[in-house]
């Protein structure tokens, strides 16, 4: 799939997403914030793509889809959906190779740090504890897969996975499932 199709898939998914929890509840507010973050990153990615910055477009689309999918996994949205980074042919021109390299390695470091700087918030007996652990596990898996892609020389694939995984941690923080134990600047709170 080319980057333009990835952005279009994101836009279509966003347009079909409906908040599944009752209006006026605390979870409705969380759902609103999660979908707002996803929409903002879809918009950012579209602008980056239009202005000739496929590196930031790719990172924005993957990050925004991560927010959407984490919210779906939490049961905040319908229809339930998942849009993990597949094979996106980002078509990053050689002239942006340095930018891609820098951003991919930076996002790897940031996701690694973010994973180390959160702890599960809900009590172990709470069903939300299992939810927090599911989000953490997803982020760890995307980190590991991103590292594999990076080791194989696919920096665009790695960036998409690091960005997507990072969103799962950020969405968990925003939903109150994680407590930040380190640098707050790594999170969108």
How would you describe what is shown here?
- The chain is mostly helical and 189 residues long.
- The chain has one domain (3-84, 96-186).
- It has six helices and four strands, in the order αβααβαβααβ.
- It has helices spanning 3-16, 26-50, 54-73, 97-116, 127-151, 155-174; strands spanning 18-19, 77-78, 118-120, 178-180.
- The strands form two sheets. It has a two-stranded antiparallel ribbon.
- The longest helix has 25 residues, at 26-50.
- The protein is globular.
Oligomer category: single chain
Number of helices: 6
Number of domains: 1
Shape: globular
- Secondary structure: helix percent: 55-70%
Biggest β-sheet strands, sense, barrel: 2 strands, antiparallel
**Mean pLDDT, rounded to whole units?**
94
Structural class, judged by helices and strands?
mainly alpha
Strand content: 5-15%
User: How is the largest sheet built, in terms of strand order?
Assistant: 1-2
Q: What's the alpha carbon Rg, rounded to whole Å?
A: 16 Å
Determine the N-to-C terminus distance.
32 Å
How would you spell out the order of helices and strands? Answer: HEHHEHEHHE
Low-confidence stretches: none
The total strand number stands at 4
Brief digest:
With 189 residues, the chain is mainly alpha-helical. It has helices at 3-16, 26-50, 54-73, 97-116, 127-151, 155-174, and strands spanning 18-19, 77-78, 118-120, 178-180.
């Amino acid at each position: 799939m080319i980057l333009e199709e990835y952005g279009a898939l994101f836009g279509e998914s966003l347009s079909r997403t409906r908040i599944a929890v009752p209006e006026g509840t605390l979870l409705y507010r969380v759902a609103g914030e999660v979908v707002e973050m996803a929409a903002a990153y879809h918009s950012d990615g579209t602008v980056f793509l239009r202005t000739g910055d496929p590196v930031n477009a790719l990172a924005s689309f993957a990050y925004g889809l991560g927010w959407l999918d984490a919210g779906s996994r939490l049961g905040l949205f319908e229809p339930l959906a998942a849009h993990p980074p597949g094979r996106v042919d980002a078509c990053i021109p050689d002239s942006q190779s340095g930018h891609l390299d820098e951003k991919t390695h930076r996002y790897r470091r940031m996701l690694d740090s973010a994973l180390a700087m959160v702890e599960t918030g809900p009590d172990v007996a709470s069903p939300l504890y299992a939810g927090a652990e599911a989000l953490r596990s997803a982020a760890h898996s995307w980190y590991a897969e991103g590292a594999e892609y990076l080791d194989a020389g696919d920096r665009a694939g790695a960036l998409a996975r690091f960005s997507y995984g990072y969103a799962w941690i950020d969405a968990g923080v925003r939903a109150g499932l994680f407590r930040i134990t380190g640098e707050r600047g790594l999170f969108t709170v």
